[in-house]
Amino acid sequence: MTDAVDVVLDDPRLTAPPHVGVLSRERSGSAEVVRFSYSSAWLGAAREGFALEPELPPFSGEFFSSASGGLFRIFRDTSPDRWGRVLMERREALVARAEGRKPRRLGEWDFLLGVSDATRVGALRFREAGADEKFLDGQTLGVPPSARLRELQAIALLLDEPDSEGRPEYESWLRQLLAPGSSLGGARPKATFTAGDDTWWIAKFPARQDRHDVGAWEFLAHQLAVRAGIQVPDAQRLKLGGEHHTFAVKRFDREGRGRRLYASAMTLAQRNDGEAASYLDIAQAIQDSGDPEALNHDLAELYRRAVFNVLIGNRDDHLRNHGFLRGPRGWRLAPAFDVNPNPDKDEHTLALGESGGHPSVADLRATRELYRLTGSDAERIEREVRDAFRDWATVAKACGVRRPGLQRLSAVIDPTLE
Known about the structure:
- By secondary structure, this protein is an alpha+beta fold.
- 32% of the residues lie in helices and 16% in strands.
- Strands 4-3-2-1-5 form a five-stranded antiparallel β-sheet. It has a four-stranded antiparallel β-sheet with strand order 6-7-9-8. The chain has a three-stranded antiparallel β-sheet with strand order 12-13-14.
């Protein structure tokens, strides 16, 4: 695997030069040191060249990352998360067994360059430094059509079985999921697929250990978010076999055949996994890096999402579950995603106010001025969000949630919570 790559921006909305810079690594034993430097074209493009992230201001010279894991956060956003990493580690184990050696311990560099170029999140692409060749691509299979979703869901469940590695079909199963699934974040089994209109979607499959119909619950959250006036991608509830549903959501980092530059809130807030964080960190990131003409809009939208997440019981609400898309003037909040009622946690992962993670709309309201909201503005948003939960149980039934699920949800969803 190459130790230096050219970073290329492929976002038709942005007029910055395509060659962003060079990303390289040095290995010393098991340790990796990652460097980045902007290209002269990027730095010479006056108003078009911008900071990829706060840790990478548009200056000449080499930058070294302070992020955990050693990889700059903006590039970590294009790498796989837990599900994709599991697939890549399984592939390495398979290759090692065929070559008669021990599996290598994969590092951040391996994960970054080992995913499918076609399905990679965002608009940053990579090719070998100095070589005007095709982009690096860790996969050989393309993006599957929606007609293959039933098969892919069955494969994901089979891979989850304890003895799957001993099955003769194991290599074929793994190869079929690597291309559409290895680039994606989160812990759940999933895959990118194309719909009939050439739009790109993510299918989030049921998992063997699910205690409830996670797909139906997430679709309910999506429908209620629409009623609450929250910007969300298009979504569908699919029944592909088995007891539970698959939640399918349109990828917002793809527009037609074009890509959108994406950054997580973790990146723009300059936090690391496991560090304490709050909604105020996201609000500050909006004020520091956002589109100046859209600050008030995005801050109000963030407040609306925070209220909604409290009331729906989305307790596993963290910085990687909030993101931004780059526009010509700055970063804009991406549509809301990964909103799930969580019956197994009492505390909110992101702090809401002075009470930390205790879910409280009142504590959130006490910080309203940091969202540039007046008291009446905050109350109006809260009222609109609460109204979205009227007859939520009826909506849940229409989303495929059964009686046991309704009983569990009633202990999580609380539109009256103060």
